[in-house]
Amino acid sequence: MATLRFHELGLDDRLLKAIADLGWAKPTLIQEKAIPLAMEGKDILARARTGSGKTAAYSIPIIQNLLQSKLTVSEQAVQVLILVPTKELGQQVQQMIRQLTSYCSRDIRVADISGQVDVSAQRPILMEKPDIVVGTPSRVLCHMNQGTLCVRDSLQAMVIDEADLIFSFGFEDDLKNLLCQLPKIFQSFLMSATFNEDVQALKELVLHNPVTLKLEESQLPDSSQLTQYQIQCEEEDKFLLLYTLLKLSLIRGKTILFVNDVDRSYRLKLFLEQFSIPTCVLNSELPVQSRCHIIAQFNQGFYDYIIATDEHSLAEPRKKEKKATGRKKKGKGEKGQDSEYGVSRGIDFQNVSTVLNFDFPLSVDSYIHRAGRTARANNPGVVLTLVAHTELSLLAEIEEALGGTGTGESVLCPYRFRMEEVEGFRYRCRDAMRSVTKQAIKEARLKEIKEELYSTLRN
Ligand SMILES: Nc1ncnc2c1ncn2[C@@H]1O[C@H](COP(=O)(O)OP(=O)(O)OP(=O)(O)O)[C@@H](O)[C@H]1O
Questions:
Q1: Which of 41-55, 224-238, 283-297, 309-323 has the lowest mean pLDDT?
Q2: Do 432 and 247 form a contact (C-beta atoms < 8 A)?
Q3: Most informative mutation of 5, 6, 15, 28 for ligand 1 (most atoms within 8 A of CB)
Q4: What ipTM was predicted for this assembly?
Q5: Which parts of the sequence form the motif Q motif (predicted)?
Q6: Both 238 and 150 in a single domain?
Q7: Is 18 within 8 Å of 101 (Cβ atoms)?
Q8: Which domain CATH number covers 377?
């Protein structure tokens, strides 16, 4: 638990006011540790669990240091680069910085260049030399190569957010090329929820004598904040179980339903539509503006249920590809999927009461990042995982990683409810399943992309 308050950290009044407006009573642990060190100019390598407030842990000292430097330097220049693996995260980081600079927005300007498709449309934005530029490595490099972004004489700090994903999203070469265009000395931050060999490689590439903040917290909030359940079932009963959970209001509030592939998300959407349960889908083949729009609408409470296909299927093959061929590609993934897409990583879905793993996550990391979409900051949350019998070995892996087997107690408690109630819905669900044909899924998939494209063009 953090012991200091924000006003004890020596921050500018304008920043303190913005923090108060956000309703944050005190810093999170990672913020309490990172902010003073970063204000001293130290390089930081930080690992803290998902949802622990890492974005503000680097944004607050960066804004503070910029406000300080503005007292003496008047020339406008890009002083900070924030590199993110996904476009959604870029937009979110920009939004957080805008909130934190709401009382000094004339002094500190931020631009997110990750999201827009057209590079030329971003030129005017960069010509104004925003103090902070947020972007994916490929987009930042593209502007550097075109001469629209030059930080060789001005860069003071660089952040790599979700550092463990940067390489697996195919940005290794871009990042190396980008580093050649930076000055010799600047402050660096590597932020991640997990440390892996890629973070180690990045550390050697980017950091100079860093302070390593590896918080001794468990990977997920404890059971007083996050309740984790599992239901073991037959694969074909998952739809029936979900319907029962919703029908009996055993799941309440905003819920993210995670599935492992795009077709499956439409199958689930169409299935729930049969019972007039509206949902929205989020996946990598939707245009980026639509994805950001859907996340914003979900956060504003337009939908209670969002069916998300997480990025795992995109990140992992690329890793394998690297091992096999020695180099990674970037750009569009299979079937027009966007490789700069991420749902279970970094996205701040707000006030999510339940994460439901409809499909079992394919790795421990994936479980942790999905679970991290609820119980964020100090809020409570529930993770409910449907486990088909063929997936029991994966469940055991997750139990072990979360420390469940040593004590003989399960971390993911069995969720108990009366089976007779489920059986009562079986026929109704069978009929609903029958009407969700392959053709219907195909059409829904195409329709969604078309509609989202139209609405994106209209906006
Ligand atoms: N000091 C604070 N007090 C209360 N809420 C906070 C505080 N700092 C950040 N938050 C909120 O906590 C949520 C999670 O923050 P953030 O997205 O930065 O976490 P994160 O550690 O980057 O998570 P992830 O690893 O999933 O990206 C956000 O909604 C943010 O507004």
A1: 309-323
A2: no
A3: 28
A4: 0.97
A5: 4-32
A6: no
A7: yes
A8: 3.40.50.300
